[in-house]
Specification:
Its EC number is 2.7.1.21, 2.7.1.74. One of its GO terms (molecular function) is thymidine kinase activity. Its main location: mitochondrion. InterPro entries: DCK/DGK (IPR002624), Deoxyribonucleoside_kinase (IPR050566), DNK_dom (IPR031314), P-loop_NTPase (IPR027417). This protein is α/β, with parallel strands linked by helices. Helix content is 50%, strand content 15%. The strands form two sheets. Strands 4-5-3-6-7 form a five-stranded parallel beta sheet, with helices on both faces. A two-stranded antiparallel ribbon has the order 1-2. Strand 1 and strand 2 form a beta hairpin. The structure holds adenosine-5'-diphosphate and the ligand Nc1ccn([C@H]2C[C@H](O)[C@@H](COP(=O)(O)O)O2)c(=O)n1. The site of adenosine-5'-diphosphate has 15 residues, from helix 1, helix 7 and helix 9.
Length: 229
């Protein structure tokens, strides 16, 4: 249930708890990172609902989008916007929530990339943008910290091949490069869109053992994040 506070809809219920979003390119290691922290007590982890994006009432909008982005980009991104909004608004069951990506990166990275690369018609981009603007103007979507797993596109390309998700076999390196530049301009160079929370950058090209070590080193910084007002 939503109620109104200071002109915005907010989720009813318990006190605001810290929300940490893990951001990064496709196959940068977000799920692996969340899996690691999920073993910590008092933390709730929400991974992206990719299984929903691969099966909505028997349809696979993720596969359709990769097959024909101009036709299906709007369909996929509309559904992603809905499912991610649902995550943001769901009741937080532990003292801290960590979640994979956010409503913000869905728009600022993926929708933007489809449009800028000429694969999304202007009218589809306009409709998604209107939806996004309405949501962030009218609903409180609190994020207290963004953890950015910073990788090279080549690392993601190698990991993507290793993960071997059927729909993603068609992804070329150039696609990951375009997403990388959008992420860097948003979270590092601050030259594109407003960043909704402080950013902690973790270099993420390293092997798994070194990554787990870095997660431990950053644990304190991550979990003592002050709540945004
Ligand atoms: N540091 C790492 N070194 C090598 N492979 C990794 C590392 N982190 C994750 N992987 C592997 O790379 C693939 C993508 O990782 P994943 O966590 O699913 O990425 P994301 O959730 O960001 O898409 C998986 O096969 C995973 O096992
Ligand atoms: N707004 C989004 C979010 C994700 N995707 C795609 C990219 C991947 O193929 C897949 C899952 O991403 P991952 O968690 O592996 O980084 O969903 C998209 O197209 N739009």
């Amino acid at each position: 249930m939503l109620s109104s506070s200071q002109g915005k809809l907010v989720r009813d219920g318990e006190d605001r708890k810290p929300v940490i979003c893990i951001e990064g390119n496709i196959a940068s290691g977000k799920t692996t990172c969340l899996e690691y922290f999920s073993k910590t007590s008092n933390i709730e982890v929400l991974t992206e609902p990719v299984s929903k994006w691969r099966n909505v009432r028997g349809h696979n909008p993720l596969a359709l989008m990769y097959e024909d982005p101009a036709r299906w980009g709007l369909t996929l991104q509309t559904y992603i916007q809905l499912t991610v909004l649902d995550h943001h608004l769901s009741k937080i069951m532990a003292p801290v929530r960590m979640m994979e990506r956010s409503l913000y990166s869905a728009k600022y990275i993926f929708v933007e990339n489809l449009y800028k690369s000429g694969k999304m018609p202007e009218v589809d981009y306009a409709v998604l943008s209107e939806w996004f603007e309405w949501i962030i103007s009218n609903i409180s979507i609190p994020v207290d910290l963004i953890v950015y797993l910073q990788t090279s596109p080549q690392t993601c390309f190698d990991r993507l091949k290793q993960r071997c998700r059927e729909e993603e076999k068609v992804i070329p390196l150039e696609y990951l490069e375009a997403l990388h530049h959008l992420y860097e301009n948003w979270l590092i160079n601050n030259t594109s869109f407003k960043v909704p929370a402080p950013v902690l950058v973790i270099p993420a090209d390293h092997d798994l053992q070194k990554m787990l070590h870095q997660y431990e080193e950053n644990r304190e910084k991550i979990f003592t994040v002050p709540r945004a007002p």
